[in-house]
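Researcher: Good morning. I'm working through a list of sequences from a screen, and I'd like to move beyond sequence-only analysis. For each chain I'm collecting a predicted structure so we can compare shapes side by side. This is the next one on the list. No need for commentary yet; just the structure.
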Amino acid sequence: MKRLTIALLLCVGLSAHAQWFTGMSQKTGLALCIHLTDNSAELYSPMQTMEPIPVSTYSLEGDHLTLECKSIGLKINLTRHDSTFSGYWKQSILKEDITFYPTDTIFQLRRPQTPEPPYRFDEETITADYTDSQGNKVHLEGTLTYPKGGGKFPTMVLVSGSGQQNRDEEIMQHKPFLVLADYLASRGIAVLRYDDRGVGASTGEVEKADTRLFAEDAEAMFNAVRKNTHVDPKRLGIGGHSEGGAIAPMVAARNKDVKFVVMLAGQGCIGLEVLVQQNEALFRARGVSEKLCKKRGACMRELFMLPQGSKVKDYQAVIVRHLDSLTQAEADSIDLKKGMAHAIKQQLDTRWMQTFLKLDPAEYLPNVKCPILALNGWKDCQVLCEPNLDRIESLTEGRAVCIRNQWLNHLFQHCNTGSPDEYMLIEETFDPYTMTTIADWILALGK
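Model: Good morning. Structure tokens for this chain:
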């Protein structure tokens, strides 16, 4: 059998009537399913094969479950916590903490909101070719969706979050931008969504690109669609998710043709603070104590503040100083180890990260004079709701309409903890109420 790298989904049956649990790994994109009966176990990796993978040994003692598959070098060690199991999986050099949630059957990806042909909108391709401020030639390509029939429509250009993504902002088979575009078309609103440079049909330098350069891309697509026959230029705005939620107001602050801005989980705090908040929240969602979450945040803050070009030993010194007061179990619970210094240095030395750490919405948000709608979920662990929306309100002197939803995560899905571990397991792609709120707000502009 082909050697499998496994880590994404665990389904554990604790009795003969097959109770299942599901979990997600951030390090791989694969699924693992285990069916446990009274005295036997079967392992599946359904995203690779439906043939069972032999389980060599397993043990279930009280709340402690261990499982080993020697043929692929996989070990799983879990402890029950109320209705979930938490622990780690390990295969070769890969090791990761993971939490598994109860489900009713073997894993299947279901994305019921993804629209299927025949679509309820018309569409056409929009392109932009330009030379960015670094002298790189860039070709961008996207899809303009608009309501069936003639006319000029209010229109929103959508900008994706960090990392190079396609025009649907696709993640784990969720296509949030396509789902949003489909809904807005049903409400009489056109949407332009485009492939980021270096992805799909778009080309351009990526390695040395940063948020400010991606803002140039967004503005190029905004200018390209402005003269389209289906676009009402008097009702043309920019919306963005996550990093795109910072880019949208950056463009609006300098381009007066932008008539509105929609910030979906967009930052209000300086980039360094966003990352510290994120580091604490991700471990808080795993059930780690507040004291240890703050410890993680304090360590990462010091690492983020080291001058660019610092040596690996400088990063190690910071980590070791914070490790001195922790037991091994405490250090493991917040994934803090001396050996992480090299990887952190590599990440922090990139142009994108250096720009993001210093990126302060105070530079551009006060200069946005068009209407702003900012939305976030209370359970967002990547761009925290309260500190960021509070600062957006402050920087816009209350002009921005800020909406907080108690149950949503960073992707605007209803969730349990808000952890990225849940993203794949949630069938919902985009909260319908949030989409309705966006449509109602855009259609009300100018009335």
